[in-house]
Write the structure tokens for this entry.
Amino acid sequence: MISGTEFMIEDPRMVEAACCWVGPAIASASEIAEIQAQCECNQAICLACPDGMVVIDLRTYGDELEMFVWIAVGFRHGAFERQEPAMLTIARELGAETIAFHSRRRGWGRRLGLEWQRRGIDEFVRKV
């Protein structure tokens, strides 16, 4: 388990398996292959728990270290709400100051709490 959460490090092949389970709406085949390749060359890491799978990396955004979520797949309804605290814990353990993600799906702005800020058109970020 990672940082006392339910998340475990998974084989990069989990990316394709999880995305295929959800269906083609989440990402194109080439995007999935790119994300999986990033995991295979240790530029990103695939984490999974019973609620879902995420691929994260650490990057610098401005002067801050950021944990960026490349893709997230929920296996059960309410996964985001249940696992957001775990993502914060992991980000803290990695030394990140913020968490960010990009979403194609509309409605995240209404769903996220006040601690989340919009960055650009379809990215969201929050302090850890």
About this structure: The chain has one domain: 8-127. The mean pLDDT is 92.
